[in-house]
Amino acid sequence: MTAHQNGTISSEVSDFLLNCFVRSHTWQLSFSLPLSLLFFLAMGANGVLLITIWLEASLHEPMYYLLSILSLLDIVLCLTVIPKVLAIFWFELKSISFYACFLQMYIMNCFLAMESCTFMVMAYDRYVAICHPLRYPSIITDQFVAKAAIFILARNVISTVPIPVLSSRLHYCGRKVIENCICANMSVSRLSCDDVTINRLLQFAGGWTLLGSDLILIFLSYTLILRAVLRLKAEGAVAKALSTCGSHFILILFFSTILLVFVLTHVVKKKVSSDVPVLLNVLHHVIPAALNPIVYGVRTQEIKQGIQRLLKKGW
C-alpha cells in the first residue's frame, strides 16, 4: 500500500496487462499471420546474413562488420517485441511482469537508437567509399569499426537509461491495463497517478536529439554522395552508385518516416483511431528488420556470392 500527497491510498502493481487490439479477436488472428511471416523472414534473413559474413573470409571487411551489427540489432529488437505480441494474439497471454515491462521498454529505446546510429556510421562508410575512394582503406579500417561499435553502444546504452528508470519510479495506483501491444514509455506512464510531464519531455527530447542528429548527418552524407556521383564520367558508374545508395537512403527514410508518423498520430490522436499508433509501434520493430538484410545484404554482389558458395558447400 502506498500513501500519496493528495491523501489517497493505493496498491502498487506487480504486473501489467497488454490490451492489444482487443476490440476484434478475428482481426488479431488475421493480423498474426502476416506478422509471424514478417518475423520469420526477419529472423531468417538476418541469421543467414550473419552466418555468411562469419563463415566467408572474403567478407571479413569493415563494411560487412557494420552490416553484422545492424543484423544483430534487428534480431534483438524482433525478439524483444514480436514473440510477446504473437503470444497475446494466439494464447491471450496479456500479462507482463512489472520488471519485464520496463526491461522491454529499455531494450526498445536503446536498440532503436543504436540502429539509427548504425545507419549513420554506414552512411559515412558509403560517403568515404564514393567521395574519397583512394583514402577508403586507410579511413574505414577494422579499428574504425571497433571504435564505431563502442560509440554506438556507449552513447545509446547510457542516454536511454533515464526513460525506463523514471517510468518505473512512478506510482501506478493499481491501474495496470496498457492500451498497447508493447511497453511503450508513454503508454505505460499515463497509467500513473503522478505527473508525467518530465517523462513526456524526456522521451521527446531524447528521441529528437538522438534520432534527429543521426538523420541530419545521414542526409548530409547522402547529399555529398549525390553531388560526387553526378560528377562521375565513367559509363554506368552513376547508375550503379545511385542504385546502391538510393536503396539504402530509401530504407533509412522508411525507418525515420514510420517514427515520424507514429509521433504525429500521437499528437492528433483524437482524429486517428487509437489502433493506428499501436499498429505502427509493432510494425516498426519488424518491417525494417525484414527489409534491412535484403536491401543492404542480398543486393550486394559479394554477399550474394558468399551465400551461393555456402549453399554449394552445404550440398
Automatic annotation (TrEMBL):
GO CC aspect terms: plasma membrane
Principal subcellular localisation of the protein: membrane
Membrane topology: Multi-pass membrane protein
Keyword list, A-Z: G-protein coupled receptor, Membrane, Olfaction, Receptor, Sensory transduction, Transducer, Transmembrane, Transmembrane helix
Subcellular location: Membrane
Alphabetical GO biological process terms: cellular response to lipid
Cited InterPro entries: GPCR_Rhodpsn, GPCR_Rhodpsn_7TM, Olfact_rcpt, OR51/52/56-like
Stated name of the protein: G-protein coupled receptors family 1 profile domain-containing protein
TM annotation in the entry: 31-55, 64-90, 96-114, 208-229, 249-268
Protein function: Putative odorant or sperm cell receptor.
One Gene Ontology term of the molecular function aspect: G protein-coupled receptor activity
Taxonomy of the source species: Eukaryota, Metazoa, Chordata, Craniata, Vertebrata
Domain G-protein coupled receptors family 1 profile: 45-296
